[in-house]
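Note to self: keep these together.
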Amino acid sequence: MRQSGTVSLRRQPDAERIAIIGAGSVGCMLAAHLAAAGCDITICGRAPLERVVMTIDESTVEHKVEWAAAPAELPPLRYAVLATKIHHTPAVADWLGALPSGCAVLAAQNGVDHRARIGPLTAAAVVPTLVYPNAERIGPGRVRVRRTGRGLVVPDDDAGRAAAALFAGSGVAVETAADFPTAAWEKLLFNVIANPLTALTGRPLEVFDDPAMAALGLDLALEAVEVARAEGAALTPQHACVALAWLQGLPGATPSSMLQDRTAGRRLEHVGLLGPVLALGRHHGVPTPLTRAVLALLDALPDALPDGGLDPHHEVR
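Structure:
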């Protein structure tokens, strides 16, 4: 139900408690949705937060949250959400390591290798979670969300279905994907088009109204499709066309997450997004010259190479 103004949810005695690791744009968005579904939220991190505020559909909702300053302060819980950028994952290894084996962590990150990347850092079960809404951080604990026609995607297995059930009544739809590796590669197509080219040009999604930029984005996605197919994903060139058309159908003022990071002077996620395309392409003998060129351009931006990121010039296996 659409809410007007600012609201605060009352806690229920039997509410599911969920830890949010990474209280940026996506973390605060998911915290607000889970709070709307009746969950109790604990924000993890050094900066204290007492509430999360989400503006969506021209309405603003506010939810009180708890805060844990250190992993030892985490309460008993069965679920956590990891919502950092790929290259920030090592920085939250202590939080992940504190999660018990009976816990599940929803890995709300980009990429195609969630379990391989996060599994070694935690005893918790990793539930890869693809995030389609556009979230923009506008202040500590505050986020503006733009709906894109899709919500979250999780694997169609026991852990994924249990995670999806947490969002019942949250205001965000959750799909389950029987072929999750293909779903993850499909999501990556949107990222390899939108994030690098908006960050390089300093323009939001309206940049793809330019036929030359649209053609470049499509060619980047087509390279990723060929790598995905070599990895066994059931993608076709039509998926690349659909991804570009979907981005062109969103409001032109929509900023990608990487454009937001560049505007704010934060390190970029380009290595985590494009690096696997380049490395896996090399592994399978699939040419990826455009991906290599765009990575080089992004690397050349001031302070662009993220600490702890995947070196795109190294093999991934």
